[in-house]
Amino acid sequence: MTNEAPRKFQILPKIINGGIGGIVGVTCVFPLDLVKTRLQNQQIGPDGEMMYKNIIDAFRKTYKAEGFFGMYRGSAVNIILITPEKAVKLAANDYFRFRLTTADGRLPLINQMFAGALAGVFQIIVTTPMELLKIQMQDAGRIAAQARAKGQLVELPSTTSVIQKLLQERGILGLYRGLEATALRDVTFSALYFPLFAALNALGPRRDDGSGEAVLWCSFLAGLTAGSATACIVTPLDVIKTRLQLINKGMGEEEFSGIMDCAVKTFETEGVRAFFKGGLCRVMVIAPLFAIAQMVYFLGIGERICGIKH
């Protein structure tokens, strides 16, 4: 019995599957993620003005000002880092689910949530710097457009210049600005998402290849549904994290010293609705991202590469 257990879980193909799933997913949804970041970071001006009215307006203005490739601003660092991020998240969840399964083969809900939470803890090692750099690049166009409207010129930063500035001013820890807020969002998300996905994925028909896994369209729909619900729930935490990680604020925009300070100031100046800014856009990003990533994850590409029967 003890000799068989290690053969039941192969970590390398899981990591490969997670990395490939992340790359495919983020490439598909990145323009939506960029719009979500800009909607969440914009604050109401002194005269009540806002640069973007809604998702469509943000898309239209961004495309008009920056073109097609502007919609993928910051995608390079995101795609590079999403590989280990999704690999860690998906593989770690599977690993902890395997380890937390009881001797009689059961996996109680609390164990599923704990496995997801642990996966969230591990992923923030990669997620925090990835999100920090991505947000600076994604929001740079909004700040530049705001400056141009006031007759000023702002040079759009490169990923290299952002990294160099952070390292010079804050050292390696500068890349982990907003770590606590990222952990709060991702641990909560993973603890809720993975048990919900597993429950939904278990409802669909099984493949006829003997793997016992759900058919791919079922995994896609399970990821889409679980991603939508969980993304909606944690949107307020994502708004706080996004605002804390933005280094260069727009003119007249608030600075925040921490999670509570950001939450209080946002509530006082913009009300409850501010915590759901970009919420629809976030759901539109996360739902297909996880649906695609989960579907690709279960394709078994990693197993085929490693010569392991899927």
From TrEMBL:
The lineage of its organism: Eukaryota, Metazoa, Ecdysozoa, Arthropoda, Hexapoda. Responsible for the transport of glutamate from the cytosol into the mitochondrial matrix with the concomitant import of a proton (symport system). It comes from Glossina morsitans morsitans (Savannah tsetse fly). It comes from the Eukaryota. It catalyses: L-glutamate(in) + H(+)(in) = L-glutamate(out) + H(+)(out). Belongs to the mitochondrial carrier (TC 2.A.29) family. This is Mitochondrial glutamate carrier 2. The chain crosses the membrane at residues 15-35, 107-126, 183-203, 215-237, 283-301. GO terms for molecular function: L-aspartate transmembrane transporter activity; L-glutamate transmembrane transporter activity; symporter activity. One of its GO terms (cellular component) is mitochondrial inner membrane.
